[in-house]
Amino acid sequence: MIDAPDLSLAALAPLLLVFGAACVGVLVEAFVPRDRRHAVQVAVALVGTVGGFAGTLLLAGTREVTAGAALAVDPAGLFLQATVVGLGALALLLFAERSLDPARSAFVASAAVPAGSVRDRELATSSRVQTEVYPLATFAIGGMMLFVTANDLLIMFVALEVLSLPLYLISGFARRRRLLSQEAALKYFLLGAFASAFFLYGLALVYGATGSIRLSEIRESASAEGGGVLLVLGLALLVVGLLFKASVAPFHAWTPDVYQGAPTPVTAFMAACTKVAAFGAILRLLYVGFGTEEWTWRPLVYGVAIVSMVVGAVLGLTQTDLKRMLAYSSIAHAGFLLTGVLGLGADGAGSGLAATMFYLLTYGLTTLGAFAVLTLVRDGDGEAVHLSQWAGLAARSPLTAAVMGLFLLALAGIPLTAGFTGKFAVFRAAIEQGAWPLVLVAVLASAVAAFFYLRVIVLMYFSPPAVDGPTVGVPGVPTTLVLAVTATATLVLGIVPGPVLDLAERAAIFVG
Amino acid sequence: MTLNYYLVLAALLFTIGAVGVLVRRNAIVVFMCIELMLNAVNLTLITFARSTGTVDGQIIALFVMVVAAAEVVIGLAIIMSIYRTRRSASVDDANLLKY
């Protein structure tokens, strides 16, 4: 007789709501007539994610380990869940934008039709849109929410796959430049599956070393018996698997290609939400599972943080494609985030956790906004993402240039933007733990990275516009809403970060 | 202890799979190598389940099989869509995205 595990439905409500919306989305795809499907799908996905967001807010303060100790619904987990699902809802709004592309959608009409075939050309100009992207994205959001609350390595692995598999698919769904998009999907899939095999082998080794996959039991076993070779090796492989998802150099090879090839709304979604989810899992694994074995992971994280910041900042300088540039920026930011992870002191003391969570929120909002602006500037072949096409954009559309300028300044970490307060918080946390050499590298890397952000701003404001330059589309309600929210948040979190920082500090508690 | 042989065999299989991913050019073969890695992990899990005297390892192996099956569905769909367009499943031909 096996006892059913205890399930606290209240604590799991946000997760259940999002997964429920995704399942309903699959049914909608099957049963609702094609002409009404888009509206219904958008409504279902938004109800699920906004409801999930409200649910995480209502649960604030919960400290519960549930589902047979497989899930830990704790303040830090809820903060990260709220960040993921909130950003996910904004990204879904970008998916739903219908007035920018003449074909009324950024997504391919039928992914099964070979790119470049006669049928494909017919469909590309038709107004037919495929709506399967909404349930897929909702499943990915659900997987991410599960990922940040997973209290056991098996659930963490399953959540990793639930969030990854839909992302592999939707990065191949671009309506224009389909070959690039399919190639991005192939690369993301092969490398992602490769990385999850490493995560899984790490899981197996940790299980062999400790006899358990619960993070709390791993922690007890590790501190009782000391870290054996098996445990350290297992931890290293687990961390490699997670660092891959977080696009930290040297495990970043997929990032620029996938960010460039995927449809821009999907890139925005990946850049913002996947980053939050992956770092949420890294924090929980290192703090809850290996908090007493700090010496095992600190040198590894220290090393990859430096590599990531340097690779992101230096290679970002050479990019001429804006999406690739933002991809390298995301690699550099992953390095800054690891600085915050190192701000975790022995057994989770220090302000590293709060600082990293705050940084994740600010970075997610800013990068989502930046990619949203990219969807506005278009030429005949879709989005105009080459750097030269952005010359003199301020003369053509002052508002677009100003909003993009704000996001770029925030990514560069200029004061009075959210990027500055986030960076300040993680650097301070790292210095408190004595990691000042790392912070020195981080400050230098920020200075290098600032060059390529500012180059875009200079290009927009001080270059003569190209004769046959791109047009700036007038966004519909969804994109306008996203831009308004992200731009406001970037400014507000830069000028009065206090309340949200306090919230992050109060939420910096892991149980389990 | 004889259980060590299983662990060594699994480690070898995992390594063969990992090397295969890095050196083989056909996307299908690369994918098969990833499956080999996952199955090496399953063997490790079962061995550890035996040596630690818990059933968790066997249950995880079942989960891994289900996830691997789901991954096959997604992976083959992506490889098929590329193959239909390019008439090739070589990962070297997928080279539009670079620098």
3D structure, described in words:
The complex is a heterodimer of chains A (512) and B (99). Chain A has helices spanning 9-31, 34-58, 75-95, 118-125, 133-149, 153-170, 178-210, 215-225, 229-245, 254-261, 264-289, 294-317, 322-342, 352-374, 393-396, 398-412, 418-432, 436-462, 477-495, 498-507, and strands at residues 64-66, 71-73, 377-379, 382-383, 471-472. Helices cover 71% and strands 3% of the residues of chain A. The model of chain A has no long low-confidence stretch (mean pLDDT 89). Chain A is globular, with a radius of gyration of 22 Å. Chain A has one domain (9-507). Chain B has helices at residues 3-23, 27-52, 56-86. Chain B has three helices and no strands. In chain B, helix 1 runs antiparallel to helix 2 (27-52). Chain A binds chain B through residues 111-112, 114-116, 154, 157-158, 161, 165, 168-169, 172, 178-180, 182-187, 189-190, 193-194, 197, 200-201, 203-205, 207-208, 211-213, 256-257, 260-261, 318, 324, and chain B through 7, 14, 17-18, 21, 27, 30-31, 34, 37-38, 40-41, 44-45, 47-48, 51-54, 56-57, 59-60, 63-64, 67, 70-71, 74-75, 77-79, 81-82, 84-86, 91, 94-99.
Give the structure's gist in a few sentences.
Chain A has 512 residues and is an all-alpha fold.
Element string of chain A (H = helix, E = strand): HHEEHHHHHHHHHHHHEEHHHHEHH
Mean pLDDT of chain A: 89
What's the β-strand tally of chain A? 5
| Beta-strand percent range of chain A | under 5%
Quick one: overall form of chain B?
Answer: elongated
Radius of gyration of chain B equals 17 Å
SS content category of chain B? mainly alpha
Helix/strand-derived class of chain A?
Answer: mainly alpha
User: Into how many domains do the coordinates of chain A divide?
Assistant: 1
Count the beta strands of chain B. Answer: 0
Number of helices of chain A: 20
Main sheet of chain A? 3 strands, antiparallel
Strand content of chain B: under 5%
Strand order of the largest sheet of chain A: 4-3-5
End-to-end distance of chain A, in Å? 26 Å
Largest interface: A-B, 43 and 47 residues
Low-confidence residue ranges of chain A: none
